[in-house]
Prior knowledge:
Helix content is 22%, strand content 29%. The chain is α/β, with parallel strands linked by helices. The strands form 6 sheets. A 7-stranded mixed β-sheet has the order 11-10-7-12-17-14-18, with helices on both faces. Mean pLDDT is 83; it is low at 1-16, 125-129 and 355-360.
Amino acid sequence: xPESPTFSPAPAEASQSWRKALLPADATIxxxxxxxxxxxxxxxxxxxxxxxxxxxxxxxxxxxxxxxxLELKSPIDAIIQREAMVSxxxxxxxxxxxxxxxxxxxxxxxxxxxxxxxxxxLLNELMAPSHRDNVMxxxxxxxxxxxxxxxxxCPKPLLPVNGKPMLEHIIERAKAEGFQRFVISVHYLGHMIxxxxxxxxxxxxxIEYLRENEPLGTAGAIGLLRPRPNAPxxxxxxxxxxDVHYSEVLKFHARSEATATMAVRLHEWQxxxxxxxxxxxxxxxxxxxxxSRSHVxxxxxxxxxxxxxxxNPGERCDMPTLFGxxxxxxxxxxxxxxxxxxxxxxxxxDYEKPHRRPDA
Length: 360
């Protein structure tokens, strides 16, 4: 196996230091995203230069801003929740719990009579079960052709990243969020994956396998699922390393009442030349090396069980095709924009990217 690149480990418990969530009012959306990732508290507390509480920024606020066309370098002013619910310093603990549970919020700022922050109440996911019944499916059957020679004798998902297979990183991150039931789709050198993970007992989880007799694409293998899941499930490509919280994708999917959700990432590409706009032979505009922005498929999905009705067992199908079938049938298909660290390891250069991560 090749030398192991480094990548961030599975998330630890959220920090209890609310001061890590403080964010100046003149920060950018990129600053807010970095704050959320570093604090682990799922909320940023915006303060003025005078130290007074301005409002909050959450992961959802950032994603909605990106969908409206804002950029990571945009100021946070447009996404601050200035009417955020707060708690006075002397509110009894029992009242705080009831308030947070009834409003389904995970974090509640504590503000004193001068409107200065005095702390942060954390529900710490009391509304969520410690054990998730949702199944997580990992597509690990690819040939890894573009990563050769690394994959000549090793399936791509077993390539080491920071000392352990990338597939193990994916499983550990999901396990940290309460996922216990995993299904891994295997084909190329699949016996090596099965020998490494077995039934999941050594990781204290349950692992089953979908064995593809021939490549079935990024969606076809899930048509082999027996029995069918009875709740929404997550599907991820086995070569995608990310800091995205899979449980948050599921929550977003459920709140949106969608049949299928696709995680997407903003991709920017700068044209190498100046672009001339013409009407006939007349020049009507000129733009010097314009930047094109679009959302690209990030290889992570949440699906309802009835999405499987649109797959034929044993028939090749890719995820975009499945989403197209659902859309044609008037089923709701949505995107989940991500800003977290994300690497799709498809080529040798991609495999080396984790080496260059500043937080590695």
